[in-house]
Every structure is written in C-alpha cells, then in structure tokens.
Write a structure and sequence with these properties.
The protein has 354 residues and is mainly beta. Helix content is 11%, strand content 51%.
Length: 354
C-alpha cells in the first residue's frame, strides 16, 4: 500500500509541475476524476431467484493523459476504489487478474504512424468493450465482458489515413490466459480497424489469443455503429473458436438502440444472445450472481433491458444520471439500477485560473 500511495503522490506532483509548464506553453495535460455511484436491487421472479441489493459498478477512477513535445504522448487510467477494492492492490503482477492500473501507455507518432507500448487493452474492440468501465452498464453485458482480463502488456503500430477517418492497428501482447505476462510464453495478436464514415462507425478486429503453447482462441469481432439523427444503433457480432480441430464455437450478437431528446435524455434498450457448442472459453465457474460468468452448452445465454440516461448540466455530458432494468434467462430475477456518473475535469479548472 505504501508503494501505491507513493505512486499516487508522484502522479499528482508531476501533474502540478507539468501544469505550471503547460501554463507557459499552452499545452495542458488532462486529468479527469471519474466517480460512479449506483444502487442495484434484485427482485426475484421465481423459485430460487436471485435477490438482494448491491452497489454494482460504484467506483472511483481517473484518466491522466497528454503530450510531451511534438511526437510523444501518454495515457494512464486507474481504478482507485470499487465495491471490492482490496483485490485491486493484490497480485498486481498477475496478468489474469484486474488491478488498480487499467492502462498505462506511451506513444510515439511519426507522420501517419503511431507506435504504442505499455499496459493496454487487447484490441478486440466492439462497442461493448470500447467504453471505459466506469461508463458501462455491466448488468447488460455479455460473459466476455464479465470474464476476460482485457488489459495486458502490449505493443502496437497504428496507421491513420490522410482524412483521419480510418485507423488501423496491429498489436502484439501478453495473453490473458497467462498468470504473469510473457513468463509462460503465451501471447495475443490483434488487428483492429476503427472508422468514422458519417452514419457508419465500425470497430472491426481479428484476434489470436494463445491459451496453451500453439493453441489459440480465435476471435472475430465486428462492432457496427449506425447513427441517423437522434437515432443510434450499436451492434456487435462476435465469433470465437478455441480449438485447432474447429469443434468448439461461440457466437454472440449484442445490440444497443437509443434515441436522444434535445441532448438531455437518452432512451435506450440493450439485448444480447450468446451461443456455444461445447464449453465456455473464458468462463470461470458457475457462480450464483446476476450475471453468469459461466454459460453451459445446453443453455444459450440471453440478456435484455432498457432505461434512460439524463444529462442535467447545461451544454455538458460530464454528469450522467441513469435508471434502467435488466434481466436474463439464467437468473430468475429482474435487476434495477439507479445511479450517477460524473467526470470531473481538473484541467478545465486550471485553464480557468490561467
């Protein structure tokens, strides 16, 4: 814990020092403190249905990023507090567990190419994995989101098109099946495409994730964003195969559909369906929780729900209030979630006092 405290102090001291230099150069780093608080009651709808109350994705996080000179940039995201804080600071060298550092990267840009190294998200992409955890509703997510250790030591090279509407990245990193990065020589290989073409915003990827020497989980993920005025749709189609003989297949389809009213309200519905032919690739065990972390081959997984987001601040989405309901075919209950997420931008405060 002393090391964690020292790192926190070092980051804050660096921010203060760099901010003073930024005032002179006009190049400010960005420090955003993100807090989410929510209450989730579970209502049983049948015998042995899951019931109770918890605080869900309540957490305290931060995002610190900026540039150094013309070519270098950095980014760090942290989970400081959650409803189960202690595990964040235990076994921080294990690559198959989450810890208080989500990512910590440094990038070098030369022309249209960007070289990135550090702890980063495996480039599986899709609209389910793309948002920051503090903004995502875990009660309406797939088992892949619930189980994979997505942040690993990685290196990547990216290319941005001249019109800046297309970004391609090739990534090499440690496997989430490792217990310690690179020690057991298990790796991941990813190719991802981000696009922004008016109404069509794709996040497509192809991945090889090694779970035994020479044996890979093959993942093709097609994230499709479709936007027409106030209407939006985000559809993920994900195929997984974990066997060299091709006998184990998983497929999932997840869709979010939303309508925005005057930039203040977002009404949304989200649903997903997961099929697997033999056994759960990333699942751990059959747990008695609302979101299963293990799904059997004789019962496919379906989840669904909907609700509303409200942004009360004028000309800002920094504060988001949410209310939604969720259910699935594994748990005989309905979950409700009421909460708020606030992104507090300290950089804006510094700029105002320049």
């Amino acid at each position: 814990m002393k090391k964690i405290f020292a790192l926190t102090v070092a980051v804050l001291c660096y921010f203060c020092t760099y901010s003073q230099e930024a005032k002179e150069s006009g190049n400010y780093p960005t420090l955003i403190i993100m807090h989410r608080f929510e209450v989730n009651p579970y209502l049983s709808t049948g015998s042995e249905g899951y019931k109770g109350v918890d605080f869900g994705n309540t957490s305290l996080c931060s995002l610190f990023e900026g540039s150094i000179g013309e070519h270098f940039s950095y980014s760090m995201s942290n989970h400081w507090l959650t409803t189960e804080t202690k595990p964040l600071y235990q076994d921080i060298l294990r690559s198959d567990e989450s810890d208080f550092i989500d990512w910590l990267t440094i990038s070098y840009t030369l022309g249209r190419f960007t070289f990135t190294a550090g702890k980063d998200m495996i480039a599986i992409g899709g609209y389910e994995l793309d948002p920051m955890d503090v903004d995502q509703h875990g009660l309406l997510c797939s088992t892949l989101y619930q189980t994979i250790s997505i942040f690993q030591l990685c290196g990547a090279v990216g290319y941005t098109s001249k019109d800046e509407r297309t970004f391609l990245s090739l990534q090499f990193g440690a496997s989430p099946f490792s217990t310690q990065s690179f020690k057991d020589k298990l790796f991941s290989y990813s190719l991802i495409w981000y696009g922004d073409y008016d109404w069509f915003v794709p996040i497509w990827s192809a991945n090889l994730i090694e779970y035994e020497r020479g044996r890979f989980v093959k993942i093709a993920a097609l994230g499709n964003g479709l936007y027409f005025g106030n209407f939006g749709a985000e559809i993920d189609l994900v195929y997984k195969n974990s066997n060299l003989d091709g006998q184990n297949h998983e497929f999932s389809a997840i869709g979010k559909f939303s309508y925005t009213i005057k930039d203040k309200f977002e009404i949304f519905a989200r649903a997903g369906y997961e099929y697997r032919s033999r056994y759960d690739i990333f699942g751990y065990e059959d747990e008695y929780v609302f979101n299963p972390t293990y799904v059997s081959s004789n019962k496919n997984y379906a989840f669904y729900g909907g609700g509303v987001h409200y942004y009360p601040l004028k000309n800002s989405t920094d504060l988001r209030l949410h209310l939604f309901a969720a259910a699935n075919n594994y748990t005989k209950s309905v979950a409700l979630s009421l909460g708020a997420t606030y992104h507090f931008n300290l950089t804006d405060i510094i700029r105002k006092h320049k």
